[in-house]
Amino acid sequence: MKQKIVLILIKFHDVDNSLYLYCDEIRLEPDTVLATLYAAKKYLVPHLAQQCVKFLEVSLTARNACLLLSQSRLFEEPELMTRCWEVIDAQAEMALQSEGFVDIDFPTLTSVLSRETLNCREIVLFDAALSWAEAECTRQEVDPTAENKRKVLGSALNLIRIPCMELGEFANGAAQSGILSLQETTDLFLHFTARNKPSVTYPTKARQGLKKQICHRFQSSAYRSNQWRYRGRVDSINFMVDKRIFVVGYGLYGSSSGAADYNVRIELKKYGEVLAESTTKFFSDGSSNTFHVYFTHPVQVERDVYYTASAILDGAELSYFGQEGMSEVTVGAVTFMFHCSSESTNGTGVQGGQIPELIFYGPTLEASDK
């Protein structure tokens, strides 16, 4: 028997065109999902609203997290707000530099600027606030002068921890923005440089940020017999997690034959597509310690999808290597599952090899218990 389709025509002024509600498969699109959520909330269609929220959670990225946070506050969707904050905290600089940031409302702006767990330099927050202020001047149909930007920012400006900037960031950025008064600029310069620091109207304590967590996938490391060699080949491993995390970088083994410098290229892929890559250097002191290398920005990793972590090292050939590898590792509230990668041409696998550590931001047991 075919499913009955019920059409309900609705006309109202705050959503474009006439709408209809029908019983069928829900098909949502990025361009219309917010309007659909609004209509579902207004006309009390909870199942449709739930599907809209799930769609938004899946499509959540640093590019749209701030704008979705603003909307989720209006729609009173606490679960979506929590997911937005996870992304904003971990990928704060990317979120603040996104195009949608300037379109958030003032309460959301103050919530972001006062956030203790942001992983972000204060100069990025300052620049983002100025961009928002310029857009707000346009919305209020006033000239975007320094005076008007200061006016629309109001008390939000004092949530930025300007004293926690680097001196060069302040001198070349905030001090020349025209937003600060002469007295504020003088006091802040003295705060940076003088022994007897004047009081300032901006918070002086750095943000706490997020705590890095590390997944160790080997139970021991070794050298001497069957020594591992870095030969410019690819060491890679596939992994999957049961909760959304943000990969910050990898821990790698160094030289087993004395101190050495390494050039390293790291990548993170999903279905063969490169999500992030970084070329950097590190110094190995010849010990069995791991050495951490990082991506430019944390990389969002979704649950129940396999990703590929890869590294290519150029330096001293002989190195430590991991052994007694584990196919499943739980760190805090996150469980990792490892699988051999077909891209690994240097012998790394689940049981042994390289890339002993994945460094990440993610939910903790304390947060999960709340």
TrEMBL record:
CDD domains: BACK_BTBD3_like. Its main location: cytoplasm. InterPro entries: BACK, BTB/POZ_dom, Btbd6a-like_BACK, PHR, PHR_sf, SKP1/BTB/POZ_sf. This is BTB/POZ domain-containing protein 3. The keyword Cytoplasm applies. It comes from Halocaridina rubra. GO terms for cellular component: cytosol. It comes from the Eukaryota. GO terms for biological process: neurogenesis. Keywords: Cytoplasm. Residues 66-175 form the BACK domain. The gene is BTBD3_2.
